[in-house]
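=== RUN LOG ===
request id: a7f3
mode: sequence -> structure
chains: 1
length: 137
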Amino acid sequence: MDDKHMQIGEVAARTELSLRTIRHYEETGLVIPSARSQGGFRLYTEADVARLMVIRRMKPLGFTLEQMRDLLDATDRLDGDDALDDSERAALLQRVRTYQQAATEQVEKLRVQLARAEDFAATLDARLERNSPGAHV
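=== RESULT ===
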């Protein structure tokens, strides 16, 4: 795998996150740039971008920074090189499963909200059509 390093501007463009947001996630320890350039600029890898994408997807579902940190810790350990015994692996998988279930519940709530919003917009469209000039025949 190419371990290309990117500066924060490219990362912001790729993730559609602001520089300020990326720096905030760095300050809170959620994403730590993998390296620094000779000039002292933060440098990010594909793995760092992937972490930011996880965070970006969790945020609209209402997860807290602490929950994001917990999930990233669990996935880091599952994906890491350290040997895990069966009970450790099972516990980590259960943590991930808990977040998967919470995400699924949030998606369902958002579907209901979206359906209500679409109904509301359709109601307004119909009202405007009924009351537009030339609608009274």
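=== NOTES ===
The chain has a mean pLDDT of 92.
Strands lie at 35-36, 42-43.
=== END ===
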